[in-house]
Amino acid sequence: HRLKGIGERRMKAAAETDPKKHACLVYSIGSNGNFLFEDSVRTEIGENPGCEIHTFDPTGDFSRRMKNPYGNSYYH
Question: What pTM was estimated for this model as a whole?
């Protein structure tokens, strides 16, 4: 599933048809401090506690910039 307006960054979620109701796991590789993709995913999944967003970025420590209002986002 590719979110519109996010360019080549892709969302791969292990979810059924409605990610707001089912568990999902999202990986983002190389944010470079830009969390628009993660923010868009968060909008799609809402407050679903069964979904996790993992961002992997070796370019720097941008963990303080990442929003985590539901406690389900992780920066590596």
Answer: 0.69
